[in-house]
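Collaborator request, handled under Task 6.
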Amino acid sequence: MKKALLPMALAAALPLTAMADVSVYGRADVSLDLLDDGADYSELNLSSNSSRLGFKAKKEFDGLTALIQIEQQVDYDSGGAFTSARDTFVGLSGPFGLVRAGQFDSPFKRARGPANLFGDQVGDMRNLTRVGDARFDERNPNTIHYQTPKMGSVQLNVAYSVNQGQTAADGASDDALSLSVTFATGPIDFAAAYETYGEDHSRGERDGVRLALGYDVTSNIKLVGFFQSVDHELSDALTSDVFGLGGEFKLGSKTRLRGHYMHRSADIDDGDSAMVAVGIEHRLDSAVRVYANYAAVNNDDSVALNPYTQARTTSVPGVAGETASGLSLGFRYDF
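Structure tokens returned to the collaborator:
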């Protein structure tokens, strides 16, 4: 209930002068998964997949809007609540655009959106794009973000993370800069992004570029393309290029068939991985859906990735030179 008010008991506890448009929202996404590392492990698991609970408040005045958001992870498989901070910020929007401060998705992370067919599920592209310390799909702390108003079909985002820790270390270069440009008009949805981290960041100095494209061939057929290039100063195994192609086909208004192919090539010998994912999703209601996915990652001898690690509470490591796979049956409820 993204537009719903909090219970009256909570609202009544607030001073009348502080009353604003306050809402509670969330997502429960749980799946039953058969995970196989391609070697000795093949077991059934229950996973909670980026499930969350959040609170929003906004106050409009003089043509401006003050806003806050507090969002936390909830692990339905184990009963854990508020186990990790998600997008949490305070901000101000108006004719000038949006300015906010806190911890939230970077523009680089958001830029995968036009090609993101299996987000938070088995087969998520981040299993190949977000490897080890070459991590770019992040919510960086201590971040200031500016988003321009839409200029026709174009919008720009600039986010600067001042430092990594609670307090800046004297003389340390652990900041991060993330930039994106998006273009959406008619059948075209496109995003390009760049991100860089300072030499003293705990995961190392690195930078990356990302391109994502979605194209509606017809009202029922969508094609997507993706490219990412990462340069990690400390590791050839983490310096890599990833590209992918995929598509979605609508069967009526409630059912979607999806599939993509992703390939990662690292700067080491025998360092390639290829991922294939296929799935079907059926919407029982605008807020409730069920889905079934199968995904597999084939690894060269120097790499051990899998298709089921990212954004999920359940995972086991891949095995170098083997094909890891996952079969998933899931239920998602957005409120």
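The cover message to the collaborator said: "The chain has a mean pLDDT of 94. The two ends are 5 Å apart (CA to CA). Please let us know whether this matches your experimental observations."
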